[in-house]
Amino acid sequence: MAIGRNWDDVKNGLTSLSQDEKDEIDFQVKLVGEILSARKEKGMTQAELDALCGINQTHIARIENNKADPQLSTIFKILRPLGKTLAVVDVPPAVSTPTGAQEVR
């Protein structure tokens, strides 16, 4: 028996959120996961990242724990010493599902 539910299960049960809101949350979760993974791959602590990017360690911790919604400039400052950047890409087209709902591929 599963102890908890994953984000996809919770998200699918949230009828009060629009698809755009769900997509924004998905993006934030993915972005934070990429930052955390990149920092750990480099064997870097939050304090070491603070020293390299000038973003306070406690703010980095809040971002990594999804307790802060950082500005784009903050994200860029954090990503640079991790050897990362952001890119703008096309949104995949939506296709109809058998139930008539829209699904992004």
Task: Give the arrangement of secondary structure elements.
Blueprint (H helix, E strand, L loop, with lengths): L6 H7 L5 H23 L4 H8 L3 H8 L7 H8 L14 E3 L5 E3 L1
Helix pairs in contact: 3-4
Textual characterization of the structure:
The protein is mainly alpha-helical and 105 residues long. Strand 1 and strand 2 form a beta hairpin. The chain has a single domain (18-104), classed as 434 Repressor (Amino-terminal Domain) (Orthogonal Bundle). It is globular and about 45 Å long. The two termini are 31 Å apart. It has a two-stranded antiparallel sheet. It contains 5 helices and 2 strands.
Q: How does the helix and strand content classify structurally?
A: mainly alpha
**Element string (H = helix, E = strand):** HHHHHEE
* Order of strands in the sheet with most strands: 1-2
Number of domains: 1
Mass-distribution shape: globular
Strand content: 5-15%
Helix content: 40-55%
**Helical segment tally?**
5
Segments where pLDDT lies below 50 for 5+ residues? Answer: none
Please give the CATH architecture: Orthogonal Bundle
CATH level 1 name? Mainly Alpha
Might you state the CATH topology name?
434 Repressor (Amino-terminal Domain)
Amino- and carboxy-terminal Cα gap = 31 Å
Structure summary, number of beta strands:
2
CATH superfamily: lambda repressor-like DNA-binding domains
Radius of gyration: 17 Å
Largest sheet: 2 strands, antiparallel
Protein name: Helix-turn-helix domain protein
Organism: Syntrophobotulus glycolicus (strain DSM 8271 / FlGlyR)
Pfam families: HTH_3
Domain HTH cro/C1-type: 35-89
